[in-house]
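INTERNAL AUDIT FORM
Audit reference: QA-55
Scope: verify that the stored structure record matches its stored sequence.
Auditor: D.O.
Record contents follow.
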Amino acid sequence: MHTSISRTESRTTSALLALPAEVRIAILEYVFDDNLRKSGLSLQALLACRQMYQDGSIVAFSKTSFIMSSLFGNIPERLLVLHTKQVEAIRNISFVADARQFRGLINWSRYPFSMPNVRLDKLTIILHPSSSWHYLFDFTSGVVELLRDLHNVRRIFIIRNNARVKGSFKTWYNRLVGMIMKVDHHERYEKSPRNPEKMWWWWSYDEVAQSLCLEARPPKPMMDEESYMLMMQPLLEEWKVSVENEEWNPDPRSRMMYY
């Protein structure tokens, strides 16, 4: 069966394909950026022809937000079926999480999903809003250890998503921040040999969105302990205010001092 193509369509496609590759890719970047601004990425441009797919697939992967909504999905297995260049192009991954996902996360080896070729601008962890409680306090120390040596991720978001967090989500955020500072001080000045972090993180909390953000920063330089404490003092004071403003919670773990 033959498919007819109008002369107008043929001329349009030929004119586009006649452009230099870098110009075609720039056009596709504009198309995909416009789709993102409209809250949805359309991949129809890739279906125009084989050349358009080859030109645009990497751009499309870099502009797409990949979401794993199933608690039983396996992201590494999904990534392994892709071409290496497609995996390397991915910049944004989100996944829904319960205890199983957190157990997997704290066992990553230096890279997201333990895959060195995954380089993310944004990693979003969305708590599953089931009827069960999330015991995030059980994973605090594991998350802190992971962060100290986690590469290839620029920003991490953890979103409550109306999930039930034992001890409260904000209290866990305070616990996490406090332990980051406590472990950092211990590894630098109370351990021999010294073990400074390989990656530092800037933290923030959004009360309205009920989410926390961790933004990757270069590791702090080595310095004497007094200079270190002076540098950390503003962060410590800010953390203390956050803890004091948190409402009293019946879970005793939420009232532990962390620093």
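Auditor finding: record pair retrieved intact. The first strand starts at residue 65 and ends at 68.
Action required: none
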